[in-house]
From TrEMBL:
PROSITE patterns: PROKAR_LIPOPROTEIN (PS51257)
Domain of life: Bacteria
Protein name (Swiss-Prot/TrEMBL): Pilus assembly protein CpaD
Disordered as annotated region, ranges: 170-198
């Protein structure tokens, strides 16, 4: 009876070594995943544009969201009640260094009459399942790559990419490099580190 119990225990340990994430190649099974979230704000319309105080409310909402590069801002006004509202929203958006995008995405609730909906679409990249220590590296008879292989590299890459949408669609590069654009980040760093002097 003792031998049978020890045999079952050793068999369970051997099977435990085979469990977990299997990675039979040199390509990581943990890849960045991009998810999009939409944030909505309905603004009151008055006449041809926004009601008084709505631009300030919009700017406060943008501040709370920490609006920045990579965010896509659109205006949804299906009834066309305030044709000048789009230009007013565009003026607020330009203060954050962005341009108003084209068509708004489909949102779960209809836009109420007399309001204009501003939609901020934000993408986030992450690597689900990392860190992954599910596989015992001491029992690697099939010569698998470790279960957590690629987690650090891909998680850092997902955290550093400026616009996560570029991981999905990519971006066309310019045919020629512009040194002014290439050196913009370095000039910004030098300006901040020296207190304003170049």
């Amino acid at each position: 009876m003792i031998h049978a119990k020890s045999f079952l225990a050793s068999a369970a340990l051997l099977l435990a070594g085979c469990m977990g994430t299997q990675n039979r190649g040199l390509e990581s099974v943990h890849q960045p995943v991009v998810q999009r979230s939409d944030y909505l704000l309905d603004l009151r319309a008055a006449g041809q544009g926004l009601a008084q105080g709505e631009q300030a409310r919009l700017a406060g909402w943008f501040d709370a969201l920490r609006l920045g590069y990579g965010d896509r801002v659109t205006v949804d006004d299906p009834s066309g009640t305030a044709p000048g509202a789009r230009a007013e929203v565009a003026g607020v958006v330009e203060g954050y260094g962005l341009l108003l995008a084209g068509d708004a995405p489909v949102t779960p609730a209809p836009v109420a009459p007399g309001t204009v909906r501003v939609v901020v679409s934000r993408a986030r990249a992450s690597v689900p399942g990392c860190p992954d220590w599910s596989r015992d590296v001491t029992q690697n008879n099939d010569n698998h790559t470790s279960s957590g292989f690629g987690c650090a590299t891909n998680a850092n890459f997902a955290a550093m990419v400026a616009n996560p949408v570029d991981l999905v669609n990519g971006r066309d590069g310019a045919e020629s490099a512009d040194p002014a654009i290439s050196g913009r980040a370095i000039n910004g760093y030098r300006t901040r580190s020296t207190g304003g002097s170049k």
